[in-house]
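Issue 218. Parser rejects a valid record. Input:
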Amino acid sequence: MAGTIYVESETPLIAAQPVSFRVIFKSDQTVKIGGRLRLIYDYRGSDRQESSGQITTPTEANYISCDSTSGLLPDLRTYSVTHSYKPLWSEEPECFLWLKVLGPEVSLNCHVVEAAFAKSDLPAGEPLTFNFGGNENGYLLSCKSYEAYPIWAILDPTGNGSWQAAGQAAVQIKPGVPSHIIVTFASITFVGEETTAHIQAFDRSFNGVAAHTLPQLPAIPGVEVVQDTGRLRFTTAGGKHLEPVNDSTLLIESNPSLVLETFPENRLFWGDIHGHANVCDGGVRSPDEYFSWGRDTLGNFWQKLPRTA
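Output the parser choked on:
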């Protein structure tokens, strides 16, 4: 690595909420006049237009500035790149450069902040601070939560196009407060069968929230709770679902379930048949995070259905 980067913030980074934070970069070598530094970060966790940085209006959202301990002020520019974007000077999409320098874990759809050193060198080891937000409007980094949201740096220390990996930072983006609860049970079952309810809280951007306390759920006609197991038993046939309930703080709803009189000939099973992680072509989350989402958030999130009063 040609440098190091890390992230500082006085407050936690919350998904879908504008925040202010700093990215600090230190080069392991002197960056000469004409050299360039690029910070690269994924925008697929939010709307591309809402999360793109800007350097022209300090009082508006997503403003980015840069400073250093010596007063060095590089020239900044911001832009966004898709996996198909080709610069005028290249036959390849720009993200191919990142793949070559950083490896397959880097995203192919990113925002970029470039610092160009046109007037003076950046001495080795001198901190260069990028201020994201820095005003009451903050910066909307992502609408999705991440255990480790990555920000990459690449460096061209002499300006001759010889780009080098220059560090990677990771910051946690936490989910927001719960806004709705989804109760999921078998799509097809039969009278008398016991099945398990999956109960999961989500914020407004559909990020899973580990809610420590869940409200009591209203009863579902034709469904009873087996007291010794906490599982569900359907007592009558027909279409079953939890009528949406909005108590002003949480929306509670469920999927529909078709309850047959006898054992069904066929069942419905759900799964994700395609997805990317950060060890393939441009996924952001790690394989552990990818499987945890399917297993713990959308799938096997086993909890007993709270009894109604």
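Fixed in the parser; the record now loads. Residues 287-297 form the longest helix (11 residues).
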